[in-house]
Amino acid sequence: MCSRTMASKTPVGFIGLGNMGNPMAKNLVKHGYPVIVYDIFPEACKEFQDLGAQVTESPADVAERADRIITMLPSSPHAKEVYTGANGILKKVKKGSLLIDSSTIDPAVSKELAKAVEKMGAVFMDAPVSGELEGVGAARAGNLTFMVGGVEQEFNAAKELLTCMGSNVVYCGEVGTGQAAKICNNMLLAISMIGTAEAMNLGIRLGLDPKLLAKILNMSSGRCWSSDTYNPVPGVMEGVPSANNYQGGFGTTLMAKDLGLAQISATNTKTPVPLGSQAHQIYRMMCAKGYAMKDFSAVFQFLREEESL
Amino acid sequence: MCSRTMASKTPVGFIGLGNMGNPMAKNLVKHGYPVIVYDIFPEACKEFQDLGAQVTESPADVAERADRIITMLPSSPHAKEVYTGANGILKKVKKGSLLIDSSTIDPAVSKELAKAVEKMGAVFMDAPVSGELEGVGAARAGNLTFMVGGVEQEFNAAKELLTCMGSNVVYCGEVGTGQAAKICNNMLLAISMIGTAEAMNLGIRLGLDPKLLAKILNMSSGRCWSSDTYNPVPGVMEGVPSANNYQGGFGTTLMAKDLGLAQISATNTKTPVPLGSQAHQIYRMMCAKGYAMKDFSAVFQFLREEESL
Amino acid sequence: MCSRTMASKTPVGFIGLGNMGNPMAKNLVKHGYPVIVYDIFPEACKEFQDLGAQVTESPADVAERADRIITMLPSSPHAKEVYTGANGILKKVKKGSLLIDSSTIDPAVSKELAKAVEKMGAVFMDAPVSGELEGVGAARAGNLTFMVGGVEQEFNAAKELLTCMGSNVVYCGEVGTGQAAKICNNMLLAISMIGTAEAMNLGIRLGLDPKLLAKILNMSSGRCWSSDTYNPVPGVMEGVPSANNYQGGFGTTLMAKDLGLAQISATNTKTPVPLGSQAHQIYRMMCAKGYAMKDFSAVFQFLREEESL
Amino acid sequence: MCSRTMASKTPVGFIGLGNMGNPMAKNLVKHGYPVIVYDIFPEACKEFQDLGAQVTESPADVAERADRIITMLPSSPHAKEVYTGANGILKKVKKGSLLIDSSTIDPAVSKELAKAVEKMGAVFMDAPVSGELEGVGAARAGNLTFMVGGVEQEFNAAKELLTCMGSNVVYCGEVGTGQAAKICNNMLLAISMIGTAEAMNLGIRLGLDPKLLAKILNMSSGRCWSSDTYNPVPGVMEGVPSANNYQGGFGTTLMAKDLGLAQISATNTKTPVPLGSQAHQIYRMMCAKGYAMKDFSAVFQFLREEESL
């Protein structure tokens, strides 16, 4: 629930109207915010024009008209371009503006952007989103979780907007820690999903019934979200991608991307991540072998299925 | 609770009175069973003599005097020796005897032993124990979980005895599936523990507070037993080995041993286990680098600490 | 060349007439040795009957009639059966016999067999063969290399026979070291082959011409047999499996088997082999994905090719 | 040998006078080139002042005075700063200048720099150096190998200078391919070095004499530069770092850095490098465990030595 007075409802900019950005921006509209949008693909803006949003020509234009902006972009280079490019936000950002980046990017890039934003007298926060596992549906329903990094005094201002789009808004610490939390979670998720797939596959080959094995793991120390909530073995659970030929959910390509970010962060901080780097390689191989668009739990299928060339 | 009538309390043999076997056998005594014991180290038997148990000279002797026997041995070769060796159980086993092996061994060896036992007209079940994480304490309190493989009709007979030593007795399927369930669980446990250590370490290096990061993981898709119940980072939880310099718990050597069994099973069944095999190597390196006797959650320390030679 | 006097040409037993055993045994015949053969598949013996060899009914029969025996078997269990089984060599082996096992098996099993053989007053040597890379052709041409483990005083006696089948006969040390040398070589071979495939693939993707890259590697510190003699990239070299759709050569299944032996030896000796174990997993995955019968250099194709499901 | 006429000996700029840059620049002086130097540490320039070189205040200053410049810098960010920074080369570069970067950096950064240089009407080539294995000595003796990427027409001009510093100058292709060749070689080198260390360690544990095992590998398919020229096992060869407590040679930190570049390139091109990424993790762990300043062949020691905490 978002219970602000109309008084606070000055325009909010939104840049990046893709799969996740689209329903997020719509939730702002639903909550009564005047929204000023931009997307590199003009068609993505049309729908918002019909909803009464102002459509602009560039990130700079958005920055000229709104002093609160949310960005939702696919990668570090896109984020750099939108903030610091030739027609980027920083060309026209107003002093005191609040810029919230919900993209999942390298935390080191978040810190760079924050510095550049600060120089202009504005505030930057990173607020990547989890909940992509339930995908667009969760975004539509406003069921996302935001992990927020930035100056603590500005957290409440950010929370006001983020609460319209997500049910959980968690303060993580200084700039970049929102990204850090997301990246660490997804790295652990990838590792335990592959581990679950390996353990279930091995157990089945050793003669165990998959449902029984899942039950045993889930009452034991092997229990994890991937085994008890999102089991990758068809027939063990309902309502998860493994029950639906690995359609929907969180794509293997996206997982590979997040693991790439984890590797960059690990290299920058000289942190050993032996299983994290192996998980990265496995998801990369899966992308090359036809699993790119399947849910990341399809690693069970990748490890299990035998093919002949 | 074990509520048998005294009628059923014919003698029970117990072979292998080590760290786990000792408290298990004592629980049988407590439940009123006449116990006939053997251990390769005579001193291990003394205590039981004082408790009124009969002490024998060999596994064969035990088999001569008891038609229900429980074995608790450190490895596959020990188990082979106790069953099929020169003075092994099979030299004098009586027809119809029930032989329950609670050792953690290669499921293929369990199957071999089962075949040899069957030839003698007796019944073999594998019933490895989980709960070593809480260690000897859990064994003493009778809080173990037994995962049982073997002919289903004999399960109740086995359960009568196992219930005296463990609060959970789970039927897993044909012979060897008890071992399989245990091995799969522990492989997944090792993978998710290392994953948790990597993710926590990376997050801390990126500026996150460890307690906060654990909280975020535990409400997200990275959640696992290693993060929410047995967190490897000192200061995050109380009452776990990481809070006590990794004393107690489940030793790194034992984890390395179980991962070795998982590798053997994976090789026998040609199952790919890329993270499981890497986890095996990591625990092996830890054993060589001074972590052998520490709890397996010390992988966090191994990955985190910087040394100079 | 083998230049013994006929005096020494008492009968030689040969057990295991498969892909490699067949041409090896024929080379003994060519060198004038009376040969006494056994194979579990009677058809495999026919050809030898036509060549004047004596065909027997069991390994024990061979041992009864020959005091020098060569065995060439596919795996550890087969070797155990042939030596210590119900109709095994040891049932009728004569004192002072020389038993040479050219199978590639676990060195720990070689040691076990050696002990059993010694008890009967005979001599056991392990003498696995390299040169399978050139396959049956090398065996036919007598171009094999034998790596021999066993008592040094008996080495010359073994060499007399082995020289008829191979151009190189190397003494490695006590029993089991022949296997050890072979296993270590093949583990390093697998690692450097995968490394070559990764490096070539990465270089090509970064815009390098494959031939030029191979040339640079081969004059630099990355040089290895897999890059300079057996390059896995089609078009770089002629006369190697990569030039012929990965036909011929050393099959992926056989490499996976040898890597399994390396893993067992590493586990027994608690030796960390992080890349060796990963190489094992990669060849196992390749076996499952249709590469089983291709040469092991096809790992380049496995890593490079993009598929859609 | 460098046999240019004095006519061509217009001044050459040299930026970056560290361990490798220092002897490289001196070789230019020896060959009669007037040299204009800059280093971020003024002390590094002193020696060159005494040799008659002109010392400047910034990369821009160098660019103002020389139309051929060689740069030798420790990492991608340093290179970016020197070329495109506030006082960077591009601030004052003359049209038609030839800029040769001998740093080892991300090939994608080389391409970026090349684009920026081209916009100013100058020419950029990447020419990383191999031969660091023999280290400063090779640089001093002019025994380096340069791998050159850039427009082919300009290769001869670059070669004129590079030949003064290295005995081998190889044209690799378009901009970035010099880096690519270097990175691919070093990734394969790391993999085969670790593989050699694993194989030698396993063989020794299985009872083989290290010298004999090295000899066997070197006449077999496991042969590689790390086994036959730079063997990591003390006592096997003389004149290599393993014979001298792993002093000298190519430091573990530098190898970890190059493997990091390989990972970045692999991620950018979506190339699977399972062993390359594992090698990266192993060298990273070694850096944390006190091996940072030892030669990279010390991975043998890391894998072999047993410690107690």
UniProtKB/TrEMBL annotation, chains A, B, C, D:
Residue ranges annotated for the 6-phosphogluconate dehydrogenase NADP-binding domain, each copy included: 12-173
Keyword NAD part of the UniProt annotation: yes
Catalytic activity: 3-hydroxy-2-methylpropanoate + NAD(+) = 2-methyl-3-oxopropanoate + NADH + H(+)
Entry's Gene Ontology molecular function annotations: 3-hydroxyisobutyrate dehydrogenase activity; NAD binding; NADP binding
PROSITE patterns according to UniProt: 3_HYDROXYISOBUT_DH
Keywords: Branched-chain amino acid catabolism, Mitochondrion, NAD, Oxidoreductase, Transit peptide
Main location: mitochondrion
Name under which the protein is recorded: 3-hydroxyisobutyrate dehydrogenase
